[in-house]
Specification:
oxidoreductase; oxidoreductase activity; 8 helices; 14% strand; EC 1.-.-.-; Sc_DH/Rdtase_CS; 218 residues; alpha/beta; seven-stranded parallel beta sheet
């Protein structure tokens, strides 16, 4: 029986790297991201289903849930860095913070709620991608880190409430991605870990299926 995974933010970075790893193991993939062109190219490469759109939009969430009546793995990888250059909390624009919460916290919860029946039926798993900024006091990272802290606690409670569904909140460490480059500059980002290496570790986690909890991959 073929396993099915739904991955958000799958057009580049960790989402695309994980999709490639799972595709190599024969998984059936449903991929979503806002960048339709990049997503379609990724789906064509991997033989996956592409459903471009914004996970903050309820209609898009409904479309994704309808596409996966059977679901073994949901990966909430899509996220936003927020305002750049990264501002101190004293000057963080509040409307921008509300948008960041919508993207990094509310949208993952909405997709979890929409796909839980399929995940329960399959005794599936949820991976929520978080960050060490959720717990570290890094100057400038307060807005982003606060949303990831909220996502971690959401994951923690969901793990307790849904014992038949594995829930992991995963800190992948610094990766050479466009998001990190936007935060710290391209030169520093280039020295970070290749997302493909992190994706292999994440794939190993899914295969091992340990108890739900926080996982640090670096």
């Amino acid at each position: 029986m073929t396993n099915t995974a739904l991955i958000t933010g799958a057009s580049r970075g960790l989402g695309l790297a994980l999709a490639r790893s799972l595709a190599g193991a024969g998984w059936n993939l449903v991929l979503t991201a806002r960048g339709a062109d990049d997503l379609e190219r990724a789906a064509a490469e991997l033989g996956a289903t592409a459903i471009p759109g914004d996970v903050t939009e309820p209609e898009h969430v409904r479309r994704l849930a309808q596409a996966v009546p059977e679901l073994d793995l949901l990966v909430n990888n899509a996220g936003d860095l927020g305002v750049t250059p990264l501002p101190p909390l004293a000057g963080y624009p509040l409307e921008a913070f509300r948008v960041l919460l919508e993207t990094n916290v509310t949208a993952p919860l909405a997709l979890i709620q929409a796909t839980l029946p399929a995940l329960r039926a399959a005794r599936g798993a949820v991976v929520n991608i978080t960050s060490d900024a959720a717990t570290g006091a890094y100057e400038g990272w307060g807005g982003y880190g606060a949303t990831k802290a909220a996502l971690e606690q959401l994951s923690n409670v969901l793990s307790a409430e849904e014992p038949e569904v594995r829930v992991w909140w995963v800190d992948p460490g610094e990766m050479n991605t466009r998001m990190l480059a936007d935060a710290v500059g391209a030169e520093e980002a280039a020295a970070a870990t290749d997302p493909a290496k992190v994706a292999e570790a994440l794939h190993d986690l899914v295969k091992a299926r340990p108890a739900g909890g926080k996982v640090s991959l670096q």
